[in-house]
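Q: What would this chain look like folded?
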Amino acid sequence: NLDDGARRADIIALPGGEKSPVRGVENLGNSTFCEPLERNVAETHLLSDLRSERHTSGLVKWSTEPHVPDVGGLGWRTKAGHLLKNQSYYPQVSSNLWNNPTFAGVNTWKEYHGPRLRADAEMMERLDQFDADEEEWSAKKTFVNTTRVETLDRFYNRKHQRSQQETSTSWAPHIRSKREYHSSYETFDSNMDEKPRQQLKRIFTDQVLKADRDAIRQIASRVQNEETWREVYKMMESERRNDLRADLQHRQAHTDRLMMLSGQPVRQRTGRSRDLSASQRVSSLSKPRDVHRPKDITAQTDFRGLIHADNAYALEALFPGQGHHLSTEFRERATASAAPGWPPPPRAETPKIDKSFKKRSQEVALSKLSIPSSFSRLDAVEARSGDEDLLGHSMSQFLSTVAAPAPDQDSVLLKQDFSPSATKERFRRSTMSKRSWHKMPDGTPTGNSVENQPPARHPYVYPMAVPTSPGSRKRVDQNGLLLSKPKHLCSSASAPLLLAADTTQTTFNQTKKKQQQSSSKELSKSLCEELDAFEEKAATLAASSSSSAFADRPRPSKSRCADPPPPSSSSSPA
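A: My prediction, written as C-alpha cells:
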C-alpha cells in the first residue's frame, strides 16, 4: 500500500528473514565508525540564565564544549560514519540549516552549537524578545498617559487664563520689534529691546551704563540751568511791571496835588479794582497760564537714544526683576534734579542693583485648576511639566500692559520627546529629568544608543507669571466649575451643580428682599408715630386756647399705621 500520510508498521519494520542494510554497510570500511565526543544524558544537562552576566559584563563567557548530549546534539551516524536520516534530519521548523546542530561537524559543535546550547541562547533570545515587547508596550502606555496629562494641563491652564481675562481690566500683548512697524527702525540701537540677555551683556557693560547715566546728568544739568534763567527772567518781568505801576501811581498822585493847588476838584479814588461781571470761565481764562512742568524730563528730544531713557525693556531683560525699576527710579531722580532754583538740586544718584538677585517665584501662591486624572495615571506619567515646574522657569510681569521679556535659552524648560521610540529604553526613561540645558545628567550611559536618541527641544513660547485679576470669580471648585449660576445657563435635574447654585442664589435673593421690606416697614412706622404725636399735641393746644363752652370734644386720635381689623370668622345669614 502507498503511504498516504500515516506511517504503517509493515513499511517501517523489516521482515525477519531479510538481511539488514546496516550489516551490508559494514563491508564498506575496514573499521567501525566511532564518535569523537562522549554523549551525556539530556536530563543531566543543567541550564542557568546568563542574562544577568551579560547585563553586567556585556558578554557571556564561553569555552569549547567537550561533550555532546543525546538530544539536541550532533546527528546520529551509522557505523560507517554516514548521517542517519531520522526525525531530527527533517526538522519541521523552517530555519537555516547552519543553525541546526544535526548537520554540524565536530569543530562547529565544539565552538558554536555546544556553547550556544549550554548557555540556552534560544531561550535567552525569546526572553529578550519578550522583554522588548513589554518595554515597547510600556513605552506606548507612557507616551499615551504623558500626552494626555500634558493636554489636560494645557487645556485647564487656558481655561483658567480665559476666566482671568474675563474680569481683567488690562492685558499685555506680545512684544513686537519696532522694525516691523517702519523701516526707519532698521538700525542698531533700535533693536535693543528684542535682543537676548547674552548679547545685552556684551553691549550694555558697566562702563557703557555709567557713561549713559553721566550723559543724562549733564543734559539734566543744562535743562536745570535753562529753567532757572527762565524763572529769573519771569521774575524780572514781574518786578519791572510792578515798578511801572508804582511810577504811574506816583505821577497820578503828583497830578492830583497840582489840581488841588490850582483849585480844581480832585477825583476821589478808592484804590480798589473795579469789579467785573464776568463768568467763572472767563475769569479763569483771564488768569496767566501756569508754567508746565514735565513729569518725566527724559521724554524730551534731548534724551533720545540714551539707554535709561529709551531701553527700559532691554534693562529689564538684562537685570530680571530690577531693570525696569532701575530705569524709572533714575529718570525720576533726573527729573527732580532738573527743577529750577538756586542753589541747584543735587545730581541724580544711581539706584543700587543687586546682581545676585534671584526670583522669588517659589514663594508666590500659584492659582491653578486641578485636572480630572487619577493618581494611578499620574504615577504612570514619565515627566509632567505642570504649573509648579513652569513657575520656576517663568518671567515675572513688571507692567500690567507690557509682556515680560523672554528668558535665556538655558533657563527655558526643555520639551522632552516621549515617543515610544525614545522611551522604550530603560536608561532613556531614567534620564528624562526636567532640565533646561542639553547636557545629559551624570551617570548617563554613552554609546550609539544615546547618540540615536532625539534631543530635547526648546519651546516656541515661554511662561510668564502674572498677578490674578482682583475681580475674578473666586467661587469655583478645584476643577474650575463655577459655584454660582451664570446668566446664560439654566439649572435642571441633569445639572445638579447648577441646580444647587440656583437654589442657593434664590434663597439669598429672598432673604435680602425680606430684609429690605422689614427695614422699609420700620421706617414708615416710626414716621407715622411722629405724625400722630404731632397731631395730638396740636389738638391739645387748640382745645386749651378755645373760650367757647360749646366746643366740640376732641376726637380720639386714630393711628395712621394701625392695621385694619381682622375679618369676622362668622358668616352673615343669607
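Strands lie at 38-40, 67-69, 395-396, 464-465.
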